[in-house]
Amino acid sequence: NVVTGILIAILVAGVIFGGIKRIGLVAGRIVPLMVLIYLLGGVGILIKNYDKLGSVFNLIFSDAFTGNAVVGGVVGEVIRQGIRRAVFSNEAGLGTEVMAHGAAKTKEPVREGLVAMLGPFIDTLIICTMTGLVILSTGAWKHTQFFVNITATSAEEARQAIELGVFQGRELFNSSLLTSFAFKDGLSFLFNFGDKIVTVSVLLFAVSTAIAWSFYGNRSAVYLFGEKAILPYLWIYVLFVFIGGIAELEAIWAFGDAALGIMTFPNLISIVLLTGALKGMTKEYFSKEHVPYQK
């Protein structure tokens, strides 16, 4: 973990000290590559398991109304967990993406807003949906604590299985390890390193996110303390990239969820107050006759 933290910190530092142009150049090349690799692997698995997709969708819709899901929704746990991961996935409503899109060179803010809307669509509706379908169609979901809880004959059996990390001869996984297992198993008909697709994708996602988020904090530091704050902020940021590489995963998630929640609340107030202005600008933009772009 220490070595990984140092290497990622050095990599991020090498990019973010180069300014916004280098950030845009690196992120613009990394993110499409990440998405392409992941999508090709996911599509290959779904094509191989096309005969199981009917039962997968049946499982999704039937379990959405089972006792576990309904009770979880009533007490707020399902909704809370869904919002936490959705916000982390696409940053919709956080007020972060506006900093990056605000730096774009365009005379039409509405047009840039339309481009920004592609982010949640690609991240959540395409990438996350495909991930869920891959995990279900390969049967990887039977290697989870959730499957243990709904299948075990007693609470004691479930507790022992979770402690051992094995249930009915299956090793239990969570987080990216579960997705890695699903890709390795799903692509085993082609090669035996399907899990490396997830490893590479997660690495590229992590690095590109760390690079992009440095710019958000950069702009905030300038707003609060002026241009002189950029260099100290960048060094502090690189330090925390290293800390993130060696700290406990649960602590990182807890801190991240709390920080994102604190960010979201004031931003949502701003969105509500600006709704009228947004509606007027959008109406004006679409009332114009636009000329198609030509080289």
Notable traits:
295 residues, mainly alpha, two-stranded antiparallel sheet, 2 strands, 1% strand
Describe the fold and architecture.
The mean pLDDT is about 85. With about 300 residues, the protein is mostly helical. Helices cover about 75% and strands about 0% of the residues. Strand 1 and strand 2 form a beta hairpin. Helix 12 runs antiparallel to helix 13. The termini are far apart.
Q: Helical percent range?
A: over 70%
Number of helices: 15
Approximately what portion of the residues adopt beta-strand conformation?
A: under 5%
Look at the structure and give the mean pLDDT.
83
Total number of strands: 2
> Sheet bearing the most strands, described?
2 strands, antiparallel
Query: What is the string of helix and strand elements?
Result: HHHHHHHHHHEEHHHHH
The best one-word shape is globular
Uncertain regions: pLDDT < 50 for 5+ in a row? none
**What is the CA-atom radius of gyration, in angstroms?**
22 Å
Give the neighbour order of strands across the main sheet.
1-2
Structural class: mainly alpha
**Terminal Cα span:** 48 Å
Topology summary:
Blueprint: H1 2-16, H2 20-48, H3 53-63, H4 67-75, H5 77-90, H6 97-102, H7 109-116, H8 118-137, H9 145-151, H10 155-164, E1 166-167, E2 170-171, H11 175-186, H12 195-225, H13 230-246, H14 249-273, H15 275-287
Antiparallel strand pairs: 1-2
Task: Offer a quick outline of the entry.
The chain is mainly alpha-helical and 295 residues long. It has helices spanning 2-16, 20-48, 53-63, 67-75, 77-90, 97-102, 109-116, 118-137, 145-151, 155-164, 175-186, 195-225, 230-246, 249-273, 275-287; strands at 166-167, 170-171. The chain is built from 15 helices and 2 strands.
